[in-house]
Amino acid sequence: MKVNNIQSCHLGPEISPENYIPENYFLYLLRGDMKAYDGEKNYSMKPGDYCIARKNHLVRYTKYKDNDEFEKIIITLDEEFLKRFLERHVYEIRPSAIGDSFIFIPENRLIKNFITSLEPYYTGDLEISADFVDVKREELLIILLKSNPDLIHILFNFSLPDRINLKEYMNKNFRFNISLQKFAFFTGRSLSTFKRDFQRVFGMAPGTWLKKKRLQEAYFLIAEQSRKPSDVYLEVGFEDLSHFSFAFKKEFGKTPNEIAKPVSNRIQ
């Protein structure tokens, strides 16, 4: 579906640009492509795709522009809004076994018409009032729940993450650059319990383990898969290339560039 006059827009509270999804949100891609990785599964989105990005999931996004344009509609379905919705609508809610970070919504007439209904409000300088934002969000939510009733058990689950297997979770998600507080939260622990359990499971402090694990992964990607250091450091959880290079040399005795294969020897 092509909506000519809508450009990127956002309804509801802003979404954090960090590596985790703090609230559920609906995404419709207008122009460009997007790929996402949640530590286990890759997701690919193209223009015309609709999906729900799920709260409390770790993800890494890569956006690809189309003629220097990347346009999307994001509608945040935050917990406060969802609780207000439940005050007016009654649903039977039970645990969901769906683990995907993104749930794709098949196109249907109701969703197409909803997207089209936004068009008059996103041309020129016209802005939607705060009251009307919630009206449109509620309209979308009713459509989504009719399209996929299983979303009831996902969107209205307000419980905190359960305590999960620490070793399995950290080995899956060490590449994500989030705080120890967030790792503790996502594994169902207080920060002090997380640190204590981590020391027991891994035999070292979480900060030490994370640095070693990320550097080992970087070494493998550079030395064995011929990846460029400048392409690797963000992928394994470092924020700064110079800090990455310093830590790498301290750990292995050589800089990333010194262990990288010459360009002529790289796999084509």
UniProtKB/TrEMBL annotation:
Cross-referenced InterPro entries: AraC_XylS_family_regulators (IPR050204), ExsA-like_N (IPR054015), Homeodomain-like_sf (IPR009057), HTH-like (IPR037923), HTH_AraC (IPR018060)
A single MF term (Gene Ontology): sequence-specific DNA binding
SMART domains, sorted: HTH_ARAC (SM00342)
Any coiled-coil regions, as ranges: none
Pfam families in UniProt: ExsA_N, HTH_18
HTH araC/xylS-type domain sequence ranges: 164-262
Protein name: Helix-turn-helix transcriptional regulator
Organism of this sequence: Sphingobacterium paramultivorum
Lineage: Bacteria, Pseudomonadati, Bacteroidota, Sphingobacteriia, Sphingobacteriales
